[in-house]
Design goal:
With 367 residues, the chain is of the alpha/beta class. It has two domains: 2-174, no CATH class; 198-364, Rossmann fold (3-Layer(aba) Sandwich). It has helices at residues 2-20, 32-53, 62-67, 71-75, 79-99, 102-127, 136-169, 171-198, 231-245, 265-275, 292-301, 314-326, 343-364, and strands at residues 202-203, 215-219, 251-255, 283-286, 307-312, 330-335. Mean pLDDT is 83; it is low at 23-29 and 71-79.
């Protein structure tokens, strides 16, 4: 039963993850009511089709899988018994994959995806009055993202069940699971402590009143193949421009990777800044801001900046503040979340920076 509950919960999460930002078009339809209005019917559709196709029937439970490994093999010693156990485990994984009814799941997924695209297109036009026509390209993109997520999730679930089976039969696997779980928990502690510690120094554009030394440090981000600033980078630069126009800063340090490989982040940032009325004399350029560490170090050592506002998205602010502190840059942060980003990218960025916060702490405390 537990395996089935976990599988259903994960499938519903994938359905939300696929459509919540990718399909909902959150930039145009921000707001809890619209999000729920476009998400809940899709979940209902998934559950209805799942019941009709029976994709959750006959999912073997933990005890059934564990019982499939003969007791005499777990009691014998030596490599032959071990390899026989691995063979049995491989057979169990094969049965697990077979029990997932991939053809039925594919039918449910396809039906839900088609419903989501048609329903959300209708919602955009009939409710939100956005005049968005149905797009085959969008539907294909929407489906592709969902297929990737579903395959990834179900693979993880299969591995999880296999580990549960082995852990039930072999004490060494139980010990390994406990150790891995403890390591994962301990890894979160530095990030949690630093996030709480830096909370008083994290501001939004609306809440920041004064900026230390009237200086902003803008962290670089991606540039599109056509040479335009990505949404994340554009929001960072526009946030710094808003601070300048509000007369809260006098200097803007633009820091990023200015190599051809990165499509010249700093040049793109500077062009956008100048285009929006910031004079050249107010702009400093750091073409070697290849990472958060490099940006903070260069600000202190090359530009003599020891206070200011760090301009980046909220998920990155705690790490940026911590790293800058290591180079005696006493800063505050201003979140550059001017728009909501697609959930897929946002989740990856958040996980990356959460892990990066602990890794940064380890980096500066390894001596």
């Amino acid at each position: 039963m537990m395996n089935t509950i976990i599988l259903i919960a994960g499938d519903l999460f994938v359905t939300i993850f696929q459509g919540f930002y990718m399909g909902v078009g959150i930039r145009q339809s921000a707001g809890t009511a619209n999000i729920l209005a476009m998400t809940i019917p899709t979940l209902v559709c998934w559950l209805a089709l799942s019941a009709a196709f029976g994709i959750y029937r006959d999912i073997p439970n933990h005890e059934e899988r564990a019982a499939a490994i003969p007791k005499n093999e777990t009691n014998r010693r030596g490599f032959p018994a071990f390899w026989r156990s691995l063979r049995n485990l491989a057979n169990l994984i094969g049965k697990s994959l077979e029990s997932q009814r991939f053809f039925a799941v594919s039918a449910v997924f396809s039906g839900t995806t088609l419903f989501a695209v048609l329903y959300q297109t209708w919602y955009w036009n009939a409710i939100l009055k956005l005049s968005y026509p149905f797009s085959i390209r969008f539907a294909f993109y929407f489906a592709s993202i969902g297929i990737y997520l579903m395959i990834f999730w179900r693979g993880i679930w299969t591995l999880f069940v296999a580990v549960r089976v082995v852990a039930r039969k072999f004490i060494w696997m139980r010990a390994a699971c406990y150790l891995v779980t403890a390591a994962i928990v301990l890894f979160q502690i530095p990030a949690l402590i630093l996030t709480v510690e830096y909370a008083p120094r994290r501001f939004t554009l609306e809440k920041i009143e004064t900026v230390p030394d009237r200086t902003a440090i803008v962290f670089g981000a991606g540039v599109y193949p056509n040479g335009e600033a990505s949404g994340v980078l554009r929001d960072r630069v526009l946030t710094a421009i808003a601070l300048f126009k509000a007369k809260k800063i006098d200097t803007i340090l633009l820091s990023g990777d200015n190599s051809d490989l990165s499509r010249n982040e700093v040049d793109v940032m500077a062009e956008l800044t100048l285009k929006n009325g910031v004079p050249e004399k107010a702009i400093l350029r750091d073409p070697n801001g290849l990472s958060t560490i490099e940006t903070c170090r260069n600000a202190a050592e090359k530009f003599g900046i020891h206070a200011g506002a760090l301009i980046t998205q909220d998920f990155h602010t705690a790490r940026a503040l911590y790293v800058c502190d290591q180079y005696a840059v006493n800063a505050v942060s201003v979140a550059a979340d001017r728009a909501s980003y697609n959930m897929y990218g946002w989740a990856l960025w958040t996980v990356r920076d959460w892990m990066g916060l602990t890794l940064s702490w380890l980096h500066f405390n390894q001596k």
